[in-house]
Amino acid sequence: MLDLQGNVTTWNPGAERIKGYRADEIVGRHFSVFRLPEEAGEAAHELEIAACEGKFEGEGWRVRKDGAKFWARVCLTAIRDSNGQLVGYAKLTFDLTQRLLLDEERVQRARAEEAVRLRDEFLLMASHELRTPLTSLRLDLYGMQQDLARKPGDTGDLANPSSLAKKLERAARNTDRLIALIDSMLSVSHLAHGKLVLRPVLVDLSQVVSQSIESIRSQAARSSCEISFSSSGPVLGLWDGLRLEQVCLNLLANAIKYGAGAPIEVIVFVDDAGAAAQISDRGPGIAQADMQRIFERFGRASSLLDQSGLGLGLYVSREIVRAHAGSIEASNREGGGAVFTVRLPMQRDEASAEGRAGS
Amino acid sequence: MTATRSVLVVDDDEDIRESLIGCLEAEGYRPVGAANGQRALELLAQLDALPCLILLDLMMPVMDGRRFREEQLRSPVLSQIPVVMISAYAPDPAAVARDLKIDECLPKPVDPTVLLELIGRYCNPKPAD
């Protein structure tokens, strides 16, 4: 029991067991002694609630005599005399630490199981993705070996330089695909461990985007995608050009994958919010339910699971853009297709640098 | 068993398709490529002679390998063409193959000698003794 001020007036063996104080040690002391020092002020508030509403109930950390914390459910009930006059409070404390630990353990276990499930899914997907370029590479190497083994005079690809050139070109391309995949996996690993380091220098976003388009143009052509590009001129900022190129290539590769056979539009512009690059395709677009999920690690849209890919590109892109204090958004294009917009902040001196560059 | 030397290669990855076609051509086969199950069905409807074998990938856009196989099995004529499943993605590819009534299943990256030996079994049947 507590008096009107919150001082302990009576003490029972149950309270002694939970809090460790004997009656002679605690009777007369204020019940805020059971609170964490930084929360001691809350005790008066609890009394006010109990006085006004008849009862206060809550859960939180409390402190035993030996200083050990325990998770408690506390119930304070106002006691009134026959005239309705408030005379004190009955206080019940339950030690829920064990339950809390079990709950926490359950949450931790569920998190760990989810992490293992995601990792297994990722490994399965990664193995599929690595096997694809390896298949082509292995077949072409075998083909070239067979050509070399043919006796002089036999017809083979050595006598057909254009066919040999095609095999070599494919082998080189698939080696690049393997490297890009491994880079992408390493990026994810670095991001997961918070090791993404930016090297910002004065960079022209228009140039980064235009270079990315050039380096992916032959891949786009193979998928019959025409890429158009327009920009408002040089857009300068202190950014990590290589990382931004990685973002552009991810977004362009996505547009080519999902919007094969149709044009892709890319624009770079500056508005009040800063610099922006926008990539629009004419693929199937993104279901509303998938709009956020596609940026999560391994979060490829459920409707697109028959497409290959690690499902990492958008996650990596978002992390890079966020590290630049920017944002990346997906939306659907009027008339069909997806639009990805990357926004990067520009500092005032960068904006004036842009003015100088443009003049 | 059909004895033509035409082989239908169904895979959405253009490089894999082209590499397989190159490999088969060098061995004297007449390969034809399709980027998905739908395109493969269209080609089968157009070809003068049915291929001796279909090399089938599983994960493809538009129509995946599973749906293609289901369509193929519905046709009394097309269901006669043997299929070799070539896939990189499946926790248990052999189980998927059994489920789809496919006798042969090769994991990617395929071993070219194993693949050619297998194709030879279907497309160059040795005359019975």
Q: What's a quick, concise take on this entry?
A:
Chain A is of the alpha+beta class. Chain A has helices at 13-19, 23-26, 42-53, 97-149, 161-192, 205-222, 241-258, 313-323, 348-358; strands at residues 55-63, 69-80, 86-95, 201-204, 227-231, 236-239, 264-271, 274-280, 327-332, 338-344. Chain A has nine helices and ten strands.
The secondary structure category of chain A is alpha+beta
Q: In this structure, how is the largest beta sheet of chain B organized?
A: 5 strands, parallel
Number of domains of chain B: 1
Q: Tell me the span between the first and last alpha carbons of chain B.
A: 16 Å
Distance between the termini of chain A: 80 Å
Q: Which secondary-structure class do the elements of chain B indicate?
A: alpha/beta
Question: In terms of quaternary structure, what is this?
Answer: heterodimer
Question: Fraction of residues of chain A in helices?
Answer: 40-55%
- What is the largest interface, and how many residues per chain? A-B, 30 and 26 residues
Number of strands of chain B: 5
- CATH architecture group name of chain B: 3-Layer(aba) Sandwich
